[in-house]
Write a structure and sequence with these properties.
Radius of gyration: 13 Å
Strand content: 15-25%
Strand order of the largest sheet: 1-2
Number of domains: 1
Helix content: 25-40%
Order of helices and strands: EEEEHH
Largest sheet: 2 strands, antiparallel
Structural class: alpha+beta
Number of helices: 2
Bound molecules: zinc ion
């Protein structure tokens, strides 16, 4: 087992992380999860997160 290769790519920061949560087929690392939780919904950064998260549930089948 290689330590470097373990982990999954986070959809928010796009880095491979070991700890995190799975949301449907996607992965969000622990750090980003915390960031999202602690970010105010009025913060512009929050809508960036939401945009990425929305991509999970809306595959580009329709335009
Ligand atoms: Zn992340």
């Amino acid at each position: 087992m290689k330590k470097r290769d373990s982990g999954e790519a986070c959809i928010v920061c796009e880095e491979k992380k070991m700890k995190g949560i799975h949301l449907y087929t996607k992965f969000i690392c622990e750090e980003c999860e915390k960031k999202i939780i602690s970010t105010s919904t009025t913060d512009p950064q929050y809508s960036e997160y939401v945009k990425k998260l929305k991509g999970i549930r809306t595959p580009p089948l329709y335009s």
